[in-house]
Write the structure tokens for this entry.
Amino acid sequence: MSLDVQILNALRGARDGAVSGADLSQKLHVSRAAVWARIEDLRSLGYDIEASPHRGYRLLGTPDVLHADDLLSRLGKTKVIGRDIRVFEETTSTNDVIEKLARDGVKEGVVVFAESQTRGRGRLGRKWTSPAKRGLWLSILLRPDLRPQDATRLTVASATALRRAIESQTGLKPDIKWPNDILIYGKKVAGILTEMSAELDHVKYVILGIGVDVNLSQGDFPPELRKVATSLKAELGKPVSRPELAVAVLRELDHDYARIASGQFATVADEWEEHGTTIGQEVTIRTGDRRIRGRAESLGEDGALLLRTEHGHLERIIGGDVTLEK
Ligand code: BT5
């Protein structure tokens, strides 16, 4: 744990709100001057830390920036996700960064955030708008013990986790649209991009990419998205703390990943169905060049969508774009 994490932990955990320089230096086994230097550094990053000769140090406010040490300090202990967090000012795509780490053999659970992405992407090479410091653009490396055909479970689990995190932090009630969209009043507020490397019978690694439109204003979206996309700030009428939401997302993901790892996908699927807009609806699904119409019946135990086609067959759909027929 870095010194910054330990200092932030101590300030957050202080019983009467303040910790003296002497206590910090003793607890962390460094000089008081070293503590002071780190406090100055945290202040320059925007942390509002009061230093009073009588009371000691007090954390009064934190900035809306993503800072790896701060995120680690807030997150505390998790089973897998977030035991290593890295933040970049700018990347092409956080999925690219994770892919490189995966190939280098890094352990699962590492999370990469970028304040902005120059080539953020959706499925099938679509563009994902990722303006600086307005959203959460993150990717996570997983090495699940799953067969490739069950990997869609992870997208389903991510959607349920993301929905819960957004609800707990904002009070908004998002819906899930199969397979990877989080919507508020029909507008997209978050998307998930699951990429994987697999052999025939087992998954080598999965990269879970998540984009959440947190504090974007209308003008941050390109004109063609303004009617179909929204942000949490736009729906709530006030900005949302990105570090707090980031930590909630990681905690919920960790929880659902554990549910999948312990064979409880059915409980995740039940929760998904409860909040999904797709089940029970007449839909058209575009997958590659195919268009299939039918009624979305349920979620299969591998995470696929089970569709009763207009010809009466039950089809397992593992990818595609869903349009609800009104
Ligand atoms: C997705 O694809 O929804 C997956 C998005 C995943 C983004 C994250 S950000 C961190 C990580 N790094 C990456 O490079 N990607 C992941 P899809 O279902 O194909 O939707 C893409 C479509 O959503 C686009 O064609 C646009 O119509 C729309 N779109 C683009 N940017 C958007 C935004 N910021 N908010 C809402 N909709 C957007």
Summary: The pocket of biotinyl-5-AMP is lined by residues 93-95, 117, 120-123, 126-130, 137-139, 180, 188, 191-193, 209-211, 213, 225, 229 (CB under 6 Å). The chain is about 30% helix and 30% strand.
